[in-house]
Every structure is written in C-alpha cells, then in structure tokens.
Design a protein that fits this description.
Blueprint (H helix, E strand, L loop, with lengths): L1 H7 L17 H13 L2 H17 L4 H16 L8 H18 L7 H11 L1
Length: about 120
Amino acid sequence: SARVAGEIGGLAPLDTAPPIRAAPGYEAYLLGKHWLARRTPEGLMRAIAWFNEAITQNPEYAVAYADLSTAYALSLTYRYDIGVESYRAARLAWVMGQRARRHAGLEAGPGPRRARLHWRAG
C-alpha cells in the first residue's frame, strides 16, 4: 500500500488498517488502473507498464489482461503515440482481450478468421 500511495502521490498509507493479503500483482494492477483513468498519453504508457508488471507477477491475472487490452484500445481511439505502431496496438488489444477471457474461464471468441469463414458459410 505504501508503494501505491507513493506512486499516486499525496496519499499516506493507513497504519491502523489491518494488513490485507492481496493476490500477487494486485498493487501493480491498482497502479495501472490509476494511470489508465488519466486517459493521457503518459497515463496510458504507465498503465501499460503497470499492467504488464501485474501480469509478470501473476500470469493468470485476467483483469490485468483485460485492462491492458483497454489501454491499447484507448491509445488507438485517442490516436496517442505511445511508442507502439497502431496496427500492432490493435493486435495487442485483441490478443490481451482473448487472454483475459481465457484466464477468466470464458471461451475465447471466434477471432477474425473464423468470423470470415462463418460469414462465407452463411
């Protein structure tokens, strides 16, 4: 909690609160959420870094994949230069969304190729 408070700034951790056992990667995930909410180029770049850190700490962290997907998608929506070429950002958004679904126990969606085949079979 001290790490999150230090990153966000102006917040002090509560020493009187009982310690909470959070899932591995939870603090990194919270920092990613904080930066994602800013909706600025810097915020999205920091959010992506923190979500990747959360995933590194906990490779099955479905919501971290989902919000990483959101960060890439927002960079395209706002046309921000976050150091990732736009087609690559779109691909990463889709891939991270699929990983989020898989780690959440949901069946992965059809994907672009299967959707085209379904349309042709029609």
